[in-house]
Design a protein that fits this description.
By secondary structure, this protein is mainly beta. 11% of the residues lie in helices and 37% in strands. The chain has five helices and 25 strands. It has a 15-stranded mixed beta sheet that branches. It has a seven-stranded mixed beta sheet with strand order 20-19-14-15-23-16-22. It is globular.
Amino acid sequence: MMFPSKAFLSILFVVLSSADASPLRPDAGKATLSFAARVNARGAVNIAAADRARAQAMKQAGSMGKRSGRSSFSITNAVVTYTAQVGVGSPATEYTLLIDTGSSNTWLGANTPYNPTITSVDTGNTVDVSYGSGSFSGEEYTDTVTLSTHLVIAEQSIGVASNTEGFDSVDGILGVGPTDLTEGTVSDFETAPTVTDNLYSQGFITTEALGIYFVPSAASDSAGELTFGGHDTSKITSPVTYVPLTTMSPASYYWGIDQSISYGRSTILSETAGIVDTGTTLVQIASDAFNLYQTATGAVMDETTGLLMVTSSQYAKLQTLTFKIGGKSYDLTPNAQIWPRSLNTDIGGSSDGIYLIVSDIGSDSGSGLDFVNGYAFLQRHYSVFDTTNNQVGFATTKHTDDMSN
């Protein structure tokens, strides 16, 4: 499976909401797992610069055609992250793991120690993964991994950390990314089977697809869901419309699609290739498109946050930002184009400021990766990453037109 990179924090979190006590719901070849949303509370953080550096790193890696199996992208700059409670062993010890759609090794031991049981097998192999601003190394085990009483994965490859960096508040990672991202991470093996691989091979899901339901950070029900094997029809208000993956490199190395973007009635980015990335906080667009957007909105740059800033009167005049993907239009309303005002101080902004979530990717269009539809887009639209059919799908949700920001 080929999933986009996912950034994670390595500092103190504040919990916005909690997952259910029994978070997994099976449904005819699918399994839905709730997760908790957490927000970075460290103060000033230039999320635009962090996203931009991430995009440039992804461009470089994609243009090389093959990522080093031992490296991923920064885990320290995301503002919102997601965790799940996962049991390992029999009887199971529960661990708090970050859900990562951009890496594929599942590992633990950063805080809660690993407790071997009768199902634990030390393979004798070592594991070593770097995440840019964090890392772990240790031994590989196979063990029983429990997502719920209805979803128990046998003989799952896991890493047991003996050394970690950047994971002070969690126990490790639940890697739900592509198998090829495990390449070179486990000694004596080319790749290691992922959680998603084993869900499929052990018959829990009937297709290798992942549905992701994000909720705006400021919404009252800000817990999200992962649906392994398809999508959750209860979370969408329109059919899922699919588009094939782009063939344009380097976007084609990730979850790449083709789209155009319009502000009001004016096209600011003609159809081009870019990616859908759960690890990017903002919506990034090519520099020439960004300049058009800034001019149209009248926004000014705030150097502390790295975000565009508008006045109340300018906000009242904002027009819809429309993403045309495969002939279907997906809108970001004016409210969806602003950073949640309740979280302004979490990024070093003014409590009464109005910041925009559209940022400059750092290069003009024509690079082969001209936009990134990050969390700010995905919290308003349900997304499905379908490896079996090499496509990405989107649908509207009850939060598409939310006014919570």
